[in-house]
Amino acid sequence: MFTIKNYDFQTVEDVKNWIGGQWVDAASGARLEVTNPRHGKVMTHVALSAASDVDAAVQAAKAAFPGWKATPMKERAQVLYRAKAIMERDARDLAWLISHENGKTFEEGLASVAKAVECLEFGCSLPNIQTGGISFVSRGITCETHYEPLGVCAGVVPFNFPMMVPMWMLPQALVAGNSFVLKPSEQVPIGASMLARIFREAGLPDGVLNVVNGAKEVVEALCDHPEIKAMAFVGSTKVAKLLYTRGAQTGRRMLCLGGAKNHLIVVPDAEVEMTSVDILRSFTGVSGQRCMAASAMIAVGDVQHIIDAVVAKARALKLGEEMGPIVSATSLKRIHGYIEQTEKLGGKILLDGRGATVTGAEGGHWLAPTILEVTAEMPAYRDEIFGPILSIVRTKTLDEALHLQNTHEYANGGSIYTTTGSTARYASSRINAGMCGINIGVPVPREPYSFGGWDNSKFGHGDITGIDGYYFWTKPRKITTKWALQPDATWMS
């Protein structure tokens, strides 16, 4: 377990692959550096795997699948119960681990562990809520449905939630009886290795869960491997679209979640304190590095008093305590580019977070909250920046604001801030987004409600969490039965 309980820099042992119940290096012996974002220093190395390593993991998963499939569903769920208890027991240690490899504050790390536990809880409930179904459909005839596992499945997850996003996939896939190959982000591989340790302690048979580290070659090998029956991805829209197209051509199931540009529409009657606090938390939480960050505020009419409140609260935020660093120097440079571009295009910088630093962590990738006033044509509004930047666009009417939201390429999330019920209903029924909020800055549905956007924010059918996630990792077998000829039989018999 992670031994340090503060933000001080610490190195950890190298991260290997977990294949068939064994920790192994990449076959080539290649490794990548893993940097602590708060300090900007290398904290460990991770295996840089290739297609041969992916095949080894798939073969281990394939060998483990028959036994796991034959295990009764309620017994499979018991592994999830035990994993939940282990995560709760070790929550604080796991939160510090997440903080060091990802850059989150300790409190954010703790919250992401809690959400991972909630996803496990839903997986534990599946034997009770997923019962298939049987009914008499005609004279002497019954129809029933059984949901069966697909076989070897795979998931590719991003850097921003090293433990939570894997739990969008693993509980449903595992309790359904599949075996799994997980590919974590090479920027944050330690969390996935801890998940492997947690599931092993919980009694998951070797080979049912495998972790293969690496970069692009691993993702492509997973996408192409003929033994993988279904694959999920969470990351950028560019990669999501490419993987969905590539994987779907092979006939396997693909569900790929992409980027976002979530809008917060603020009208003049919005409650100032709640709205300003919510907006601040939404665009600065996890340093803006989450797909549900509200990075675009649409200011409808005279809401200057609310903008002023947001700016004041953002200026007072304590960097390093209430918000962590950007994940990498490369990402920080890219984010700076949007600020510089906004200046050149004539946009206003209401709050500039460049040049910020934190005592004791001067080498970290720091950017304080930044607020821009832009037009709808500027890249700072159009693009997903993935940093603590709020881009404000002004409109005269609510319908103009809805038009901006609904013509944007992304349709992940959108919220309306108002104290009027009719305005809330009008907007929430017209926002083109898979997840909508009323006075909610991060409209993420809680389990058992499912997570997923629309349009260029998702490629594939259904959502990734909730019962949709379970259906994605299973196939329905329909059985129609007749035992005797009925004296009153009809053609339907």
3D architecture notes:
The protein is α/β, with parallel strands linked by helices. It has 2 domains: 17-258 and 457-477, Aldehyde Dehydrogenase, Chain A, domain 1 (3-Layer(aba) Sandwich); 263-438, Aldehyde Dehydrogenase, Chain A, domain 2 (3-Layer(aba) Sandwich). The chain contains 15 helices and 22 strands. A 7-stranded mixed beta sheet has the order 14-15-16-13-12-18-19, sandwiched between helices. The protein has a 6-stranded mixed beta sheet with strand order 9-8-7-10-11-21, with helices on both faces. The protein has a 3-stranded antiparallel beta sheet with strand order 5-6-22. Strand 7 (152-156), helix 5 and strand 8 (179-183) form a beta-alpha-beta unit. The termini are far apart.
Structural topology:
Elements (H helix, E strand, L loop, with lengths): L16 E3 L2 E3 L6 E6 L4 E7 L3 H20 L2 H17 L1 H12 L3 H24 L3 E6 L2 E9 L2 E5 L9 H10 L3 E5 L6 H12 L7 E3 L4 H9 L3 E7 L2 H12 L4 E5 L5 E4 L5 H13 L11 E5 L3 H13 L12 H16 L3 E4 L18 E4 L5 H4 L6 E7 L2 H10 L2 E2 L1 E5 L3 H8 L6 E4 L15 E2 L2 E2 L6 H7 L1 E9 L11
Parallel strand pairs: 7-8, 7-10, 8-9, 10-11, 12-13, 12-18, 13-16, 15-16, 18-19
Antiparallel strand pairs: 1-2, 3-4, 5-6, 6-22, 11-21, 14-15, 17-20
Mean pLDDT: 95
* Proportion of helical residues: 25-40%
Spatial shape: globular
Question: Can you say what the CATH homologous superfamily of the largest domain is?
Answer: Aldehyde Dehydrogenase, Chain A, domain 1
How far the N terminus sits from the C terminus, by CA atoms, comes to: 62 Å
CATH architecture of the largest domain: 3-Layer(aba) Sandwich
* Major sheet strand order: 14-15-16-13-12-18-19
**CATH topology (fold) name of the largest domain:** Aldehyde Dehydrogenase, Chain A, domain 1
- Count of the separate structural domains: 2
Estimate what percentage of residues fall within beta strands: 15-25%
Radius of gyration: 24 Å
At the first level of CATH, what is the class of the largest domain? Alpha Beta
* Class from secondary-structure proportions: alpha/beta
Oligomeric organization of the protein chains: single chain
Report the total helices: 15
Unreliable residue runs:
none
Biggest beta sheet summary = 7 strands, mixed
**β-strand number:** 22
